[in-house]
Amino acid sequence: MVQQERARLTREKILLGAADVIRRVGYAKASLGQISETSGVTRGALYFHFGSKLDIAAALVDEQHRITREASEMILATDASALELMMHLCLDLAQRLVADPIVRAGVRLTSDTSTFDSPIGDPFRDWIETFGALATRAQDNGETTATVPPDMAARFIIPAFTGVQLVSDTLTGREDLPGRVREMWEILVRALVAAENLATALQMLDDVFTAPGSDEEAMR
Predict the structure, then answer these.
(1) CA nearest 55: which of 25, 34, 29, 27?
(2) Domains of the chain, first to last
(3) Taking 60 as the threshold, does the pLDDT of residue 105 lie above it?
(4) Crossing angle of helices 101-111 and 2-25, rounded to 10°
(5) Which among 12, 63, 158, 163 is least surrounded, fewest beta carbons within 10 Å?
């Protein structure tokens, strides 16, 4: 049991070290020697857990998927409205991209064409499907108008979030990401919500992004 825990901790150290190296130099320039040194483990220990740099990248992506999936499931289990759930999902991922090195690395590797033989599309498809269902529920419940079809809204929201976080990463290292995601959602709310419901929806937006513990609250 002690040996299993030690192995788990070593594997975790390797993934955190790899995440840090990839953040600094990118996947293509990252070397196993850099990952070993940054992780504080021997090359032998690294090879015990992972056979190659590609194996480490795949493990980072898998771990990022697990973290974000479990977080999403917790959010979706709440009794918030569909529109509010979409805001919470975006804010949660934004905060994890700021604070969680595994999530940062996994998202970067997913969109980095130098990592795998073909792009990883499943995460994007999963998010689009989830947001499509939520957008449909929001429209059915009268939270949004029928002006924009739910599937079209979902196909826009996910790429929009992806673009916002990439630009934020380039310009500020994602320091301003929660605020930029809030701006994205203000545009979406003004486009999707009927005029008579707009004030309520904008108040909901403020409540989500200024809740205790949110980065947006800290920025104000």
Answers:
(1) 27
(2) 1-51 (1.10.10.60), 57-219 (1.10.357.10)
(3) yes
(4) 60
(5) 163
